[in-house]
Structure formats: structure tokens, C-alpha cells
Amino acid sequence: MTSEWRRRDGRIGVLTGAGISTDSGIPDFRGPRGVWTKDPIAELLSTYDNYLADPDLRQRAWLARRDNPAWQAQPNAAHAALAELAQAGRAVTIITQNIDRLHQRAGFPDDRVIEIHGNMFEVVCVECVYQTTMAATLDRVAAGEADPPCPDCGGVLKSATIMFGQQMDRRTMMKAMLTAQTSEIFLAIGSSLQVEPAASMCAIAVENGADLIIVNAEPTPYDSMATEIVREPIGTAVPRLVAEILDGGA
Description:
The protein is α/β, with parallel strands linked by helices. It contains nine helices and nine strands. The chain has helices at about 35-40, 50-55, 55-65, 75-85, 100-105, 135-140, 170-180, 200-205, 235-245, and strands at about 10-15, 90-95, 115, 120-125, 130-135, 155-160, 185-190, 210-215, 230. Strands 3-2-1-7-8-9 form a six-stranded parallel β-sheet, with helices on both faces. The protein has a three-stranded antiparallel β-sheet with strand order 5-4-6. α4 runs parallel beside α9 and α7 (about 170-180) crosses α8 (about 200-205). The two termini are about 15 Å apart. About 35% of the residues are buried.
């Protein structure tokens, strides 16, 4: 297996999906033991129109946010390895589908993490500009408000995440596309690459001359574009790949 791509010294783009956080105790969505695989109804909690229309669904969503394992999760070896890559001086930017902020907690520079699906630690109103912390809103849930409304306008509150059917943030997606366009190496780690437009970052990177490296246990729709496909566990694969990049493929 060629290691030529490891010797490239230009910009590195990284797309991370739920699979990178499973070693931290956060289950993925579409894997064999994924949240949506085991409970297809749970996917409705992430569907924007259903969330707005169904108060019962919103009540379930607030309980799911309260019980999200990300509150107790710690960065794992893969998160730490990517932080090491940045700390070593490489021009690396992460585009993440995850909302857990484990990259930042591992020491990766916050200004080089593009959260295309938002994050779980903030709450916004769908009707006005009100925003607050998730912790403050969960305190209201604990106090008996099963579906807390916006205190300013009475509108529906939701986590600051992008749900299915909700428009992506244009500025954030432009930053992600620019990262893909300017990368020499593009790592896709722990993503099924089934959700667009995130998955299309792989094609954008390849079309602009990048080597695409896919680290995922299951086949993806973009495997045919990849320079290298890695099936070993992410917790060992990413530290190994980072070490090889820093060693220049030696």
C-alpha cells in the first residue's frame, strides 16, 4: 500500500462523523448498534418539521438531551491524535458532523473546528433571536416545564443543532467547502458518508487534487474515490495515521 499521500505537506482537511466518538461512549446513528438502527422512531427527534409540529415529540427530545451520554463523555485517542496534529504545526481544519465538542476538549483549536451541524450546548428559539445555554434550559425541564417555551416570544426552543429538513448555515458551509477545496490530504473519519451536503466534501476535495483517506468500519458511497481505505478501529487507526503523517510517511 502506497504511503505517498503521507508525504504531502500542504493543508489537511478532516471530516469527522459519529464513529469517532463511539470510543468516548457516545453511540453512532447508522452503525449496527446505532441509535437509529435500534430505534428508528428516535430519528424523528432530529426531524425539524416533526419537532415543530408535535409537542409530545419535543418533550421526548428534551429528555433525550438531558440523558445524552455526551455530558459525561471524554475525548478519546482519536480526538487526542488530531489535536496533536494541529499542535505540531500542521495546517489542519476539522469539519465535524458531531455536536459533542470533544475535538475542542481534546485541545484542538476552536477556530479550526467547523461544526456544520451546530452543537448540543446551546439553545435557540425558532421564532426570535433568543438564545441561552442547554444547561439553563434543562434546569427548566427539571423544574417541571416538559416543553419549555421561549421566555421572550413564547416560541419553540430547540438545541443549536441542524435537524433534518432544516436549512444549513450558509456561512458555515462555505467555510467547509473552502477547507475541502484547499486540502492536499482529506481524512473522512467515522462517517457513513450518507448525509449530504457533508459527505460531498469528499468529492470536492478529490476534484481539487486531494488524496482522500476514509477511516470507517463499513463501506461508504465514496470508497471508490479514496486513495486509501482503513477499516481498523478508529481509536488505533487515527493515532497511527497521524504519527505517519508527522513522520512524513517514513
